Amino acid sequence: MQCRPSVNHGGAATPKALTINTLSKSDQAIIQPGGNAWYKKTYMDIGVAHLMAMFTDLSFDISLLRISTTEQSAVAIVSYRLGGLHMGKPATTFGLGAINLIKKNDQWLIQHIHNSDMQVY
Fold it and tell me: pLDDT tens digit string along 50-90?
C-alpha cells in the first residue's frame, strides 16, 4: 500500500496532506468517487444520514475475500451485505469493498474504505 500526500479522484481531493496523525485520528478523511472530500462526521451527517434514516432493522455482513499485509499496512478486499427494512419493505444491498489499514501502536486502524456501487435486490 502506498499512502500519497494527496488524492485527486473524480474532482475529489483530500483537503490536506495525509500524515500518521491524520490517518489514525477518529475523524479521518473519506473520499468517494465524483463527490467531495468529506470528513467522517460530515460524511455521516450529510452524505449517508438520509440513506440510513430510510432503513430500519439493519443487519450488516462482511466477508474477507483477500488480504495483503506488510509490517505497517494492509489492504483487505471484502464483500458486504446490508439488509433491513426500507419504507417498511425488506431490502438488501451488496457489493465489494477495499479497506486500507495502517498499524499504529500495535493496533490496526482503518485509513480508508472504498466501496463499489451497491447492488440492490
Answer: 666 677 777 778 899 999 999 999 999 998 888 888 778 88
Contact present, 92 and 120 (Cβ < 8 Å): yes
User: Is 3.40.50.150 the CATH classification of the domain at 8-120?
Assistant: no
Terminal Cα-to-Cα distance of the chain (whole angstroms): 33
**Domain definitions of the chain by residue range:** 8-120
Q: Taking the complete model, does pTM exceed 0.70, yes or no?
A: no
